[in-house]
Amino acid sequence: MSGEGTPDDAHDPARGERIAKWLARAGVASRRDAEALIAQGVVTLNGAVVQTPATFVAEGDAVLVRGQRVGAAEVTRLFRYHKPDGLVTTHKDPQGRPTVFERLPAGLPRLVSVGRLDLTSEGLLLLTNDGALARRLELPSNGWSRRYRVRVHGKVHEGALAWLARGITVEGVKYGPITAGLDSRQGTNAWLTVTLQEGRNREIRRVMEHLGLHVTRLIRVAYGPFQLGTLPPGAVEEVNARTLRDELGVTTAKPRIQRGVEREPLPPAEPEPPRKRAPRARRAGDPHRTPWGAKPRTE
């Protein structure tokens, strides 16, 4: 049965799982957005409107969002997607601009993005059907770096780029350490490699503008251990189960042998047949010496 709980019993397995987390794992929305849906009064549990995120969902409970039944949480899946220029990273855009999720190939589950990329930004975007996982991967406490290839217009001062490693404050907003290096320069255009951990809204563009540089192209090439690689624009590729386990600690399948479960005893092994002893060789110089596998010579 489901019911109301307090923070003290939030992790009591007998009570089930908090509904915001349950909705996030079901791929409906991030946990924060799920809490907003609850506040709007559009989430029901077993026919009753959910009043608080402290509500628990147990196995067999019926959860509806805006009148549509939400299925149980699926196996966690993660995808690499090469976002092209000109798409917004939302499910719906008030301005009617095309979205990432409208352009995804058919047959994929409902997905949410891990972080966002601006309309004109390109490159690696992680997508998952597990909203709770998306939120966890966005946290700066993971220590994951985001690496970008950035084309800028203007005069690049390498000393100013090196200074970014100390952190910088732009218009009252304090940004953490940024590693930026000059890769190539042609006239007033240059390519930089920029690495940061926080990834705040339009952080690179604002910092570069503060240095007198205008960003003309921005491509994310890595997010933590995940790389864009040779994935073409608009393509999506699923991260395999082994990588999910090794990099994220996410188990997508039950082990073949579970802890605490005794294995079925193996049948007794059949005894091996006795080996035939090979004939002993005759002494050297004996005219009747028999080679291995040959028949004795008769007079």
Automatic annotation (TrEMBL):
Which Pfam family, giving just one, matches this sequence? S4
Might you give the EC number(s) for this enzyme? 5.4.99.-
Query: Which reaction is this enzyme known to catalyze?
Result: a uridine in RNA = a pseudouridine in RNA
Q: What does the entry give for GO biological process? A: enzyme-directed rRNA pseudouridine synthesis
The answer to whether the entry has keyword RNA-binding is: yes
Q: Which PANTHER family match?
A: PSEUDOURIDINE SYNTHASE FAMILY PROTEIN-RELATED (PTHR47683), RIBOSOMAL LARGE SUBUNIT PSEUDOURIDINE SYNTHASE B (PTHR47683:SF3)
The entry's protein name is Pseudouridine synthase
What is the native source organism of this protein? Roseomonas indoligenes
